[in-house]
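User: Sequence in, structure out. Go.
Assistant: Echoing your sequence, followed by the structure tokens.
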Amino acid sequence: MPNATWLADVLRGAGLKVEERPAWKTRGTGELGTVRGVLCHHTAGGLKGNAPSLSLVENGRPDLRGPLSQLVLGRDGTFYVVAAGRANHAGAGAWQGVTAGNSSLIGIEAENRGDGSEPWPEIQLDAYARGCAAILKHIGAPVTMCAGHKEYATPRGRKIDPSFDMQAFRSRVSAAMAGTTPPAAPVATVDPVLAMLKRGDRGDDVRKLQDELGISADGVFGPATEAAVIAFQKANGLGADGIVGPKTWKALL
């Protein structure tokens, strides 16, 4: 199977929220071979924001060329489609006869610290399981072809991701493949132009935000606007990170 240009359509077809990154269909370190399964990771990235590791996964590190996976899974259950080609996510390892993980497994980097300091949100775990199920069904692979990096990597103990129990997770994936889980919650519809604002941003979207918050609308997302956003998020039971994403917009509008 050539490059996985089908990824976005398959995930959307499963009722999941998908954001296609620019030029993802032509991004990769080379061409994929036959896709035989999915390899699950966590990012160990920052605590703030929906997908703070997205740029790193797309562009790589000084010691490792990007992309570092085909997919990034945000904390709100959004799949960011990063690449259709081969990605540097697997390294040395073996799972169910697969030893060339970069060429044979779709990598999913899920945003989570992975050190026990951050619970896994149910909305994210649900999307993770449904996304893996959709990919496995598309390629005609059994649930055993959903592996954790910690299960694949050699020598054993070299990797700890993802931080949740993979046997229990595969049970969720199996249920999603069989269609025995409840339907996915409807995806919130928010104007994509308003999808993300943070300190330092400027423009009409910031003015709209300030109007909704009832503060002076100068179009500059500065310290006062950030403080108002955090206060609003706390008052509405949202993650108080000062970043205005889909959940905050939904509560505002």
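User: And one key feature?
Assistant: The chain has two domains: 7-178, 192-252.
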